[in-house]
Predict the structure.
Amino acid sequence: MLQITLPRTAPAPALRGRIGSGFSPDPRRYHLHLAADCPRSLRVTTTLRLLGLADRVGTTVLGDPNSHAALRAAYEAAGHHYDGTLTVPALCDTWSGRVVSNHTPDILDDLAVGLAGRPDLAPPAPAALAEAVRTLLDDTAPLAGWSAALALLERRLAGSPYALGDRPTVTDVDLWVALRHHHPASAGAGQSVRSYLGRLRAHPAFRSGE
């Protein structure tokens, strides 16, 4: 998956702070820096809508120089004289002005569990499905891996309307981005996957991400 960055002079360290571990679960305390046409950012914005947090957690889509400067300041607040790569999505704490996390899976989990209080919308996926999702999100995965992941998803969706049951979860957000915005191999998906995409497309949280 393409990583949207603002180049600096050194590799980017992973920032892996978590809400609930030094950061209180108050949605209005946090702000997200995102980028247009970025699959990871789309995963975040769709999750915000799914969780009902779109009006409670602020977002900035990078564009003008002021937005870049604000992101740079948040990274520098996270590490003295920070000189790594400025990566989005970045979850920032407005109280301290620092980046909490730039690790997308952690951000999605913290939005669901820490801020929305909806662990039911971010349950752990079975190991085989979790591996399939990682493959479908990886634009460097071999075609054989993609085909195997789609076949597993086809079998699963033959008996379930969504990836983990009868309602959409964060796992469906990841699959939506992978299948609709990421890889042309999804054009070869079976009937169950195509029907699944239709259900997601009809859902307000996903329809807004078209």
In short: The beta strands are 5-6, 30-34, 58-61, 86-87, 90-93, 98-101.
